[in-house]
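Let us work through a complete example step by step.
Step 1: write down the sequence.
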Amino acid sequence: MARLGATFQPRLMLDLEFVERTDDGRVRGHNEDYLGYAAPAAPARVRSHGWLFALADGVGGHQKGEVASRAAIESMLAGFQGSPGGESHSALLPRLVQKANAHVFETAVAGGRECAGMATTMVACALRFDRVTVAHVGDSRCYLIRGDKAAQITRDHTIANEQVRMGLVSSQEAGESSTRHILSRSLGTEMVVNVETNDHQLFPGDVLLQCSDGLHNSVEASEIAALCSHGLDLLGAAEKLVTLANERDGSDNISVQLIRVRDVERMGMYRGRPYKLY
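Step 2: predict the structure and record it as tokens.
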């Protein structure tokens, strides 16, 4: 399934185009990934709310991973669209992820034995003015592609990666470890989750890529950059990324969101309030 969208905003306002693509892969008979976006319905909401893109990878296989990922994304989008506007994304997104976590947890409890153990990853990015805020839990990733380089701006929350951070093993050892795919945190396993959040400035021509591990486990950052940089067609890039992941592995669901920034509105901040830069 692929979805393509573009905005038609006046100049001197955040302007972007995007595409989403999700695929079952070559092994699984169903898709436990879920993704979506919240678009501003009017120019005023471009400034008051901005855009939200979110992607989740359900955990649990027959334990209803697809229910967990859908519940998380629907909670995020509804919370973002219903927010009063004007709030800092770095404050809003962690709160929305916590709310999504509670929703998944409560859905699992209500579902009884059939939903026991279900959980999901989450990566979400919110764009407004000339900034992007990324909030994530688990090992779904966000990359910032600028020029001919793709930089991972999330950190995988896996046991192996936590061991690297603590200096217990090397990156090479972690890459070969049996714990490299075991999550150290996810949505739905506890009532409260530790959400990691970061913020970055955006420039015209930047591309953001969010994906599940079905993509990043098979496709290197250098290959992502080559396919997504220098104004290349987003839909074609998404299709090529999914095809490449399927050719190399295909044992997992594959999902990707690509967002290209066409123009930004340069803003500064003073005492927590934005002001326009000329």
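Step 3: interpret the result. The mean pLDDT is 89.
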